[in-house]
Amino acid sequence: MVQAHKPQEAHKPQERTSKRDGAPFLGLSGWLLTLLVAALLYVGWINSEERIWTPEQGIGYALGIIGGSMMLLLLLYSMRKRVKWMRRMLSVKFWFQLHMLFGVMGPTLVVLHSNFQLGSLNGRVALFSMLLVAGSGVIGRYIYSRIHCGLYGKKQVFSRMQTDFSVLIEQQAGLLAAVPDARERLQQFALRVSNLPAGVVSSFIRWLSSRWQAYRLYRRLERELLAALKVTAGERQWSRHKVRANVKQMRTFLHEHRVATIRVLELRFYERLFSLWHLLHLPLFIMMLITGVIHIYAVHAY
User: Fold this and answer.
1) Is 97 domain-assigned?
2) Rounded to an integer, what is the distance from CA 245 to the centroid of its chain?
3) Rama region for 271: left / alpha / beta (φ>0; ψ in -120 to 50; rest)
């Protein structure tokens, strides 16, 4: 039986820090940068047949130098984290924003430099290597956004999520008492999503299965709690207003608990995916540097 108590505002799990907090190019600046890149590529494309510039000289040559230099300067962000004396130079946020800007504008200028022509074999290899690294960077940025709130560490995020579980359940102890083992089922599911397997493939399979289990678990609990609320409302002759308030509170609680579990589930999965991405991105970046050096040497030597 549901304990009679005044419906209270359910605890709201701490939301992910705004994507604009420490995450560059996701607000107005992101739209402006996207429009700038799109405009540059469009102008370059419609004028590619006119050969207003060529990769060998003038503006086209300068675009290649500037774009290639930006790609090389992407190393500054990694150096800032690893070289001790560089840690005192500006903030991590600044270097990260610069890394993102160069990672977008560098490939754009190199594509303009090529005038949308593949050219020689070494030029094609260098171009496709750069585009591969740029695409990998976009994927990495997406994964990064799934496991970080702004620039805060993921351990801090996980501890807040664990707190969400316990606070939500404690605040609704009276409600959960109406259904036998409801509290235990929620706690067991929260424990399951907090302990994903170590492997990327196995954690992905667990991620998929847990999403389906979450759907079934919360729908079943909603039906059971709703039935218990109706029984209690009839026995205690609750007004319609009080019934609606309790039903709303119950659904709000289940929604917030489900959101919290899904966030933990995503955090654990994307952590493993981000580790794998790191292993693949570095070799791609080194390959881009090598092919770029070969291309520059071949252009000037022959």
Assistant:
1) yes
2) 36
3) alpha
